[in-house]
Known about the structure:
Elements: E1 2-6, E2 9-16, H1 21-31, E3 38-48, H2 50-63, E4 67-72, H3 74-82, E5 90-93, E6 104-109, E7 112-118, E8 121-126, H4 132-147, E9 155-161, E10 164-170, E11 175-176, H5 177-183, H6 188-203, E12 213-214, H7 215-225, H8 232-243, E13 250-252, E14 261-264, E15 267-270, E16 277-279, H9 281-292, H10 303-307, H11 311-326, H12 331-347, H13 358-371, H14 381-384
Parallel strand pairs: 2-3, 3-4, 4-5, 12-16
Antiparallel strand pairs: 1-2, 6-7, 7-8, 8-10, 9-10, 11-14, 13-16, 14-15
Amino acid sequence: MIEKVNDNEIKIKGRIDSNNAKxxxxxxxxxxxxxxxxxxxxxxxxxxxxxGLRVLLKLKKTIKGNVKVTETxxxxxxxxxxxxxxxxxxxxxxxxxxxxxxCEVVGEGANGxxxxxxxxxxxxxxxxxxxxxxxxxERDFAQAAFVAGVPTAISYDVVxxxxxxxxxxxxxxxxxxxxxxxxxxxxxxxxxxxxxxLLKELHSTSADGADLENMQAIYSxxxxxxxxxxxxxxxxxxxxxxxxxxxxxxxxHGDFHAKNVMLMDDELVFIDMGDVGYGHxxxxxxxxxxxxxxxxxxxxxxVEHYIGMNYELCLKTWDALMLEYFGxxxxxxxxxxxxxxxxxxxxxxxxxxxxxxxxxxxxxxxxCRANGILSKDxxxxxxxxxxxxx
Length: 390
């Protein structure tokens, strides 16, 4: 009837009706004693009557916290919905299973891969261990950005894919910009220009009314989290470039590069919205520098794997993007500012890259001290007194 899984999750099983509702109540309340919130796994629940539903309502009143019911079959979910219990409890349907075996990989990031399921849909499969809350957060950010006027794909279904979660998007015959450039190298400057135009359009969008995170505050927190690795002088150096940024209410993508934009019916559409937020545009420019320039400085051969085109095409696209964004008069200073904020973000990688080991962190910071932003020879003065206005 019930099985306690861990300190806030209980599995409910079989049939629950008037014949065993009292026994179910006694066991459930005992198992949930001391809980401030509880998740009920209903994957093995065959039936629940109104008597059983009243037990769940009593559970909610007893613990005075959230009661979430997950993995409900369609029939069980219908019972909750028709009785109005979906308005009283947090009820989730069992996710359908989707296989990506044999599917083309069209994108890849730190949190997962994007596959082409068919001519009309793509799926982002999150890395094993990424929680449903993270998947929903990315979906919500994408919807918030869409509401704010940003051209982005919206997920219409969340599914299971083996041991991972996936989000399905409708993308009619779309390809990543990097894939288009790889197959059509002569379009690098044209599409780079269009990426610059798209980024300017994004940065002209206000986050007012959109439920997005303050990226400037997040970066400041990340600097403080690096005290376990950096000395006071290094912390002060990175902190100074974030402290001078005026607060902005600008929508940011958070990981803008040619593999995170798709060309669909000749329209550019953002994908991978897990890092979207608001703040100063230079935070986005830094991410773009990381994804299209810094990634190939040590080993150009890895760029095609991560970005989808070779390093030469990547740099050509980047040059066109920056020229369109800043204009000929300011492009060199713009590139320098993007480099400073990109290398600063690179130095903060241990605070947000989930696969980072201690060995990797120390290796990365060694590179930052040798020839990156933590080097005593690296000049951050353009960021402290920028000539470009945003």
